[in-house]
Amino acid sequence: MGKRRRRKAKTPAKKMVPSGSGKEESLINVSSRNGKSLKLTWPCGLGLIKALVLLAIFMLFTEFLLRVPAIRRQLPPPVLGTGNLTFDVTWEYLQRTLDQYGHVDCVFVGSSMIKHAIEPKLFEKWFREKSGLDIVCFNFGVSGMRPSEAGLYKTLVDKLGPSLIVSEASPLFLDEQFDGYRNFPEISLSPWGNFQSGGFSVKGWLLTHSLLFRHCMRWNMWARSPEQYNRYQRISKNTRMNGFLVKGHGPIKKRARRIIPKPINTMLSGKVGTTQLLDDWVTCFSGETPVVFVEMPLRSETGSSLGEEDRKFSHARILLRKRIEERGDLLFSPGAQIELGKSCWMNAIHLNPKGARLFTPVFADEMARAISTGKLKCFRGDR
Amino acid sequence: MNLISGHFIFFVLAVLLFYYAVPRKSQNVLLVAASYLFYFSISLWFPLILIVVTVVTWLIAMQLFLKRQHRKTFFILALVFNLAILVVFKVHHFFVPQILSRLDMFGWQDQTLGLHILIPVGMSFYILQAISFVVDCYQGRLASFPGLMDFSLYLAYFPKLTAGPIERPGSFLPKLLKARTVDNEKIAKAFALLLIGLVRKIVVADPLLAAVPAGLFQDPGAYTAVQLISMTLLFGLGLYFDFSGYTDIVRGISGFFGIELSPNFRWPLFSKGISDFWNRWHISLSHWLRDNIFYPLTRMFLKKNIRSDNWKAVFIPPVVTMALSGFWHGTRAHFLVWGLIMGLLLAVERLWRVKVNPVRRIVPGTLRNMGSIVFTMGLIFACSIPFMVPLAKIVPYMKGVSKLNGLHAANFRIFVFLVPGLLIDLIQFRANDELVFMKWHSSFQAAAIAFAVLAVLFMSQVYVPGAFLYQGF
After folding, report:
1. How many helices (H) and strands (E) does chain B have?
2. A76: distance to nearest CA of chain B, Å?
3. Torsion over CA of A62, A65, A71 and A77, rounded to 10 degrees?
4. What is the DSSP string of A17-54?
């Protein structure tokens, strides 16, 4: 391309082809009736070839560096572009957990309620004490996760091959019309989500396979939307490596108005489709892996409207529990029966770390008991 | 067919393949066919107008070229014909809604009718070229008269059809008539231009334009002062990189066919004055306006009074020229206001340079140059607000700006996307050579190409490449 190449382009043919040999001197000579239109001589496109080789080396080297677990742990989590920041962070931390331990035995799935309620490290500790099994747990609760996106969880389960799946059993989680979803875009509609469900796109492929591209997406978020990026940073800082979310997202602005808890009956749609969604949800996990449904604790203070007195909510809970019992193949843990004080709540529906510290051991006890009594089988543990 | 799409790449490759396979005499015919095919892919009826413009202009111009009698009549006829077509399509939106409402009264509720009466893409560009051709024929500047096929190619050549550059017949037609040979150097140049254009468009312009809220100029009251200023700046810069990217891309594509297109930009961000800016921004249009409107008008006024204090000759030509430039961009009032302001700026600058210019004596060279650049760009951006903001929204916009609020919520990070664009411009400007990168050491060249390709590939996935803004004029 440059001067050097141009100079070369004029001379080498003489050296390469003996004069008078009758052969063409040029690399390409597209002749037309009146002369030559395209006259390319060797070397042609050498600069481009060099650049492409350099590009390939650079990309492979950077991709390799980014995948080294020690380096990966030091970097901020790259994004998946799903629009659900908690999901993006949690997905990355899951990869890092897998890099560290090689496997995950128990995975907690559901919405932000389970994400705030179960601390995997504490669960592991109590479980070890009670059952003697050394397990690795990961909390894959995701804010705004819809049960209709169970397909993504199937991808997750297939990837992990856990011994136990603990799913949230909340009427809120199993209500597709829940108005809290309005703030969260559907993950399955994003290029990454679409790629997971078989729809091919270059972007989906890059998001699935290239850490370099995902970091580029993070830089893009940094430049385009500082507010969203700061929120992303806050979530990644507040999320532990095992997926447990210590704090909520917090207000976007420092002096933003305090959000007044909404009565739960206004959050639920008139027609709670719990049973159908439950079936879809469970079908997704149907296999040899046992699934345990855990009901999230409820805030039963007067005025919060989240107590047993809420008829609509109670009705939905009863319906859900009944359906689980009818199926017979599912274990149910009635977490709502656990009474937790005012100091254990971060807001109307999410536990704070203190609440999680109280709730997790109780649930771990119950699981350990289920194993010892034979209710839970196929639990490999202690690999 | 968007210029940045798989379809277009396939189209260009297919045309190139045939182009080098057919005999040289048939190459222009092939290019005409390809150009019309490309135009058909945008709309079925756009090419019909182009055919009419081509045939009628060519026939009248032939009379101008060959005959000695009634030349003025033919000249005016050709001008009126071309301008009438342009004006009819440009001002149609004044009466189309009324026509639609009338049709509605008769129960003919065709909602899509309005969409069919859009101005054909590229019309503003090829009409000016047709006028140039007629003027050159009238003034006897053409050495030989082109055949219908070559003239068709001059107007319809697909790389420049949708948004220019506006080629002059005197320089472009000989390129079509002579034998073309594409060698290593030309291919390398074409590739370099293509890559620079892609970086400007995909890596710089698309992120900048995507960051500008859709309703910024329609509802300025909803934004803070800092947002209004920074987003307007982003839009202006995005527009520049979008259009200069387009020009580089089409020049690169044309280079593969051995046909060199004129440059449209010479780093306007480094302009040291208003007239300097218009010699660097959309050069093909500026020069067209200069040669066909500004110079004749100036000559007309100077004919009557050749003295330097002839204010009419100082003020009227730039104002009229720029007002027509505003009209060319669109018939809405804000374009006209923008044109008038730019014309006034040019006139004032002309006076300033001739009569006053005290800065030159006091301030040293480098500082003066930097100051000139900053001052010029500030002035250009401030005076281009009417170009972007509809007239009815100017007052709310200025009110919003005058509040001087919103500094804490502003996003200045987005300006990081400007870095590669400014860097390219700076390097080219300092070397006064748009292909300065080709003079670099081969290792640096390879590294630059590698990073450019990587950036283009990644950014084309992050942002869906949008249509070029100037195709809308």
Report:
1. 24, 1
2. 18
3. 40
4. S-TTS----SSEEEEETTEEEEEE-SS-SHHHHHHHHH
For chain B, say whether A44 makes contact (Cβ under 8 Å): yes
B27 and B151: one domain? yes
Q: Could you list the residue range(s) of the whole structural domain that residue B122 is in?
A: 6-180
Set of chain B residues whose Cβ sits within 8 Å of the Cβ of A203:
461-462
Least confident of A184-188, A266-270, A355-359, B191-195: A266-270
Residues 6+ apart with CB under 8 A from A67: A211
Cβ contact A79:A218 at 8 Å: yes
CB contact under 8 A, A30 and B21: yes
Query: How far is Cα B372 from Cα B273, in angstroms, rounded to an integer?
Result: 7
Q: For A2, which residue in chain B has the nearest alpha carbon? A: B438
Confidence band of B360 (pLDDT split at 50, 70, 90): low
- Restricting to B residues 177-216, those with a Cβ less than 8 Å away from any Cβ of A are 179-185, 187-188, 191-192, 207, 210-211
Mutate which: A4, A25, A37, vs B, most B CBs within 10 A = A37
Check whether residue B407 and residue B466 sit in a common domain.
Answer: yes
**Do B14 and B66 reside in the same domain of the chain?**
yes
Shared domain for B148 and B19, answered yes or no, is: yes
For residue A51, which of B445, B283, B196 has the smallest C-alpha distance? B445
**Which tokens go with A5?**
């190449």
Contact B414 A224 (CB under 8 A): yes
Check A213 against B450: CB less than 8 A apart: no
Chain A residues within an 8 Å CB radius of B413:
222-224, 226
Of A2, A33, A226, the CB nearest to B24: A33
Q: Which of B126, B155, B180 is the last residue of a domain?
A: B180
Residues B26 and B126 in one domain: yes
> Residue A275, Cβ neighbours under 10 Å: how many?
16
- Do B95 and B35 belong to one domain? yes
CA B388 to CA B397: how far, in whole Å? Answer: 11
Residues of A in contact with B451 (CB under 8 A): 55
For B:406-435, CB contacts with A below 8 A are 411, 413-414, 416-417
Half-sphere exposure of A238 (CA within 13 A, CB side): 18
Yes or no, beta carbons of B440 and A2 under 8 Å apart: yes
Hey, CA dihedral for B332, B333, B337, B339, is it positive or negative? positive
User: What gap in Å lies between CA B207 and CA A281, rounded to an integer?
Assistant: 39
Going from the C-alpha of A31 to that of each of A138, A381, B22, the distances in angstroms are: 68, 74, 9
| Phi, psi dihedrals of residue B400, rounded to the nearest 5° | -60, -40
Walk me through the domains of chain A, giving residue ranges and CATH numbers.
51-372 (3.40.50.1110)
Distance CA B322, CA B336 (A): 8
- Overall domain count for chain B: 2
Q: Are residues B391 and B248 in the same domain?
A: yes
Q: Does A52 touch chain B (CB under 8 A)?
A: yes
B75 shares contact with chain A (CB less than 8 Å):
no
Tell me whether residue B295 is in a domain: no
Cβ–Cβ contact A1 with B under 8 A: yes
> What span, in angstroms and rounded, lies between the C-alpha atoms of B379 and B341?
11
| Interface membership of A202 toward B (CB under 8 Å) | yes
AA letter at A120: P
For B103-143, the pLDDT digits (tens) are 565 555 554 444 445 667 888 899 999 999 999 988 888 88
Among A26-35, A177-186, B320-329, B379-388, which stretch is predicted with the lowest mean pLDDT?
A: A26-35
The reply to whether B70 and B160 lie within a common domain is yes
ipTM: 0.72
Cβ atoms A71, A60 nearer than 8 A: no
pLDDT of B96 strictly over 70: no
Residues 209-268 of A with CB under 8 A from B: 213, 216-217, 220, 222-226
